[in-house]
């Protein structure tokens, strides 16, 4: 990277800097005229110089030049104005100059801002581009939070400085010199006084600010280290809690914050000391002007207009001078920060940009062997984890790698996948080093999966298809307005040296996955998910999800058909009792009291049970139907039973998982409430206490909780109140309650609730599992499996995929690798979280699917269990970084060597 920030800025913004410097030079003309004009106004119309007699006039706007070799040139003879009109004319010119100077400043500052933002965008992109080209080993020595902080925060001042790098000294220096020259032209001695003060400020203040620069550098380093430490705490929070080291981390953070505080306190002290001296010097000059200038005026050596003009000119001198000194400090400060960034991002062995060039064209098949020649890998401690290993993998060959953990096989797999660079030797294809091949070939035709998984924040779909997103293949369908905006954005990207790649296009290489487009991608995804045993997980996620009706109209529009098909299937299986359907004129025993009252669902978080219980319309309805006392009494008994049964249980007791109406934290609150209301009636409770008690009844289900509180009479009352509730429902409630309708999809309910249009009978053994399987079959029979899969793939995996279980992450990671349909598939112990039996099933399913899929890739699988080796054509046995045996399972068993020992 360029070591000098000034050279970096100039080389990338040369033409823009030259243009704005020309504008700055042009702005000095009206700036100088604005200094001279007050003198003309005071000496001329105000004091009457040139207007000694009534009716005298003077020429206004006389424009003439004396040009060498040509002579005197008259451009405009001007106007003859009286004293009053001359005052008006000169004042209007002064106003025009003020406006013109303001417009120059507006244009210059706007141009600088845009120039700075472009440069900030450029440097941030370049740094991220370098991160993407770091050698793999470098990431073991850096903290992600520190890199992120540098790119986000530490380069921020560089963008602001870019616009000021050349313009600010030219503008401020030009203004200061213009004001100083004007003062000297008015009076030599006043000019020398101003020049002396300026010299002191220009020499002394920057020297004093060197200490500020050092303190600023220390502040930057400590802040970056704090960011990295916070990132470590977040990443290692599980280890911290497991080892009771939270207070150790608190002490560490407190010490770091104390160091930052002391640095910043010293910085503030020194900063304000410098500011005090600078301000003092700036205020001494007016004192000298008034004293010396007044003395000269009294002697008649300086007229009043000149003195006013000098004071007015000096008024504009300290500002530019101070800002010029600030600019110099900013320059040095930003240069220090830039040096730190250069130091951090100047890494040896960066990946050549040609390796990562964009290639929309399909990658050609790899038809040659994958050859490792004398490959040696040394870990960070200096130990050889792979020692001069040579092996050849033929296209289509199925190879198993076995050995103890750390025996060396996993490092060979990483070298094949380009995740580890050999310290000596090389991995090659057709005689070319794999590290010199473009990623558009190796990244598409070689797939790699291990137990170390990472998923970006987004949906399951985006992460599953991530391995197919290499270039924008299908342009987005923009409206005319959107196309104009996109064109402007691409133009700005080009000016900032960013790639002109439209993220809104479709990047998925459907052909590489074996699909013709987005309409049939699920026919390719489904077999892969089946092979890695992930289909049922995604199906369950879909059933528990709320469906975006706009995106899945193909499924939501057929909800009535789905409900009917489910009923018919239950009848075929003689399992009608598994589901109790919703009926408007009947109470559903398997639903909560609240659901029966509403015959619908609440749109959360706009409405909750607590808010509903406190709503005036609800209270009025309860009072009119007599339900208010019934539900209050029910809630009171629920509270009494819950407190009596669960008061002595620990908060993590499994019984609380069945307690839908109350949490462990609520027990003490209701215990105190019961003691207060003991023996008192409904009238003794406050409105908030009544709402808290009644709320408990909303979540009550008799067959599940079995407190014996739901009588036939009460159920009939609730059904009657339901009909009355919807007669005059207010608009605010109608907007947050979605009523059940057998002919309509309920957007605020889950997909499973919509298909059931009822509730599963809790007393039936294994009812949820049986219903899930029946639903799976119903969706498949109606040809809607892809629609359900699409809903499941909308699931947000969270930061780093942490909303998925470890097992699900490893399955999804393996599925993502398989979906690429690569020529070489490398599986480096991809499923250690699963037991050996399930690993065996998945391995058999994958190898069987690959054989029947119409293409036969090479598979290199580092096995956790050597007994699976019989599934492969050849077995490589590693020990202490060496390849000790190679051959088929039959041959290796006959040798009675290390492979046989591993099996035993």
From TrEMBL:
One of its GO terms (molecular function) is ATP binding. GO terms for cellular component: plasma membrane. Residues 75-326 form the ABC transmembrane type-1 domain. Gene3D superfamilies: ABC transporter type 1, transmembrane domain (1.20.1560.10), P-loop containing nucleotide triphosphate hydrolases (3.40.50.300). It is found in: Cell membrane. Its main location: membrane. CDD domains: ABC_6TM_exporters. The chain crosses the membrane at residues 18-37, 85-108, 179-205, 280-298. Pfam families: ABC_membrane (PF00664), ABC_tran (PF00005). Signal peptide: none annotated. It is a multi-pass membrane protein. Keywords: ATP-binding, Membrane, Nucleotide-binding, Transmembrane, Transmembrane helix. InterPro entries: ABC1_TM_dom, ABC1_TM_sf, ABC_transporter-like_ATP-bd, P-loop_NTPase, Type_1_exporter. SUPFAM superfamilies: ABC transporter transmembrane region (SSF90123), P-loop containing nucleoside triphosphate hydrolases (SSF52540). Residues 370-902 form the ABC transporter domain. This is Putative ABC transport system ATP-binding protein. It comes from Rhizobium lusitanum.
